[in-house]
Amino acid sequence: MDVVLMKTLVAIKETGSFSSAARALNCVQSNVTSRIRRLEEQFGQKVFQRSKAGARLTDFGEQVHAHAIVLLQQFAAAERDLLEAAGAGAPLRLGSMETTAAVRLPALLKRLRDVSAAPLSLTTGPTAELLSKVWDRKIDAAFVAGPVDASRFRAVRAFSERLVCTYGAASPQSGPLLAFRQGCSYRAAAQAWLGSIGQSDREVTEMGTLEGILGCVEAGLGFTVAPESAVLGFRNADQLTTTPLPVPFGDALTYLVWRIDHKPVAAHRKLLEILAEPA
Predict the structure, then answer these.
(1) Contact criterion met (CB below 8 Å) for 250 and 120
(2) CATH of domain 3-85
(3) What pLDDT digit, counting tens, does each position of 23-34 carry?
(4) Is the distance from CB of 10 to CB of 69 less than 8 angstroms?
(5) What dotted CATH number matches 91-279?
């Protein structure tokens, strides 16, 4: 088994089909098919059962997949160690809540670029999804909302946010709550607050971007709960009205977290040094 074969098998498992795996791996489907055929010929066993519904691992394929996950993690760790030893700088794969990425990270990552030439990548998503990706080693560290499970993750405090209820001048707190999908900590805070005032049945409209949410709030299509810093950075912030959420719903801490058994690379350590500097 080589690394390309292992990555291909894992991609099919994660995406559910050969065609989806090809798109994820940025190659043609025939390459995916030929790689799996090589794997099956090597062991003389079927790895996937294919149907119109997609591709499903066989019992033998499940065993191969379990070993592939471990081997790919070991390969990635070895590659990071060797890049660090060679002075080349191992990549740092970061995750972040979208609001944090839009408001807080541009200045922070610019500072990191000034002191580290290591490649950086950024994935955005809600806190629950990001924690899952950190735990599965798909990213190295993530900016998420607290609290954090100290038995699984190390964490340092990064930012303190004040959550505000935000609405357009023409429609104060009317219409649905405009929010990111389930797993977003700010949505959870908003719904907890609404529940405390007897509005747990308030309709929620899910949206994909902070800019889109605030734009719809400005247009009077609903209201949202977001960090005050994000609202103030909106292009038409003067058209919005904000009210701080009451205690205990209004204070939100953002942490940088990573697996408790993860060894931070040089770029990660530089990022921690920047976060530790006095505000």
Answers:
(1) no
(2) 1.10.10.10
(3) 999 999 999 999
(4) yes
(5) 3.40.190.290
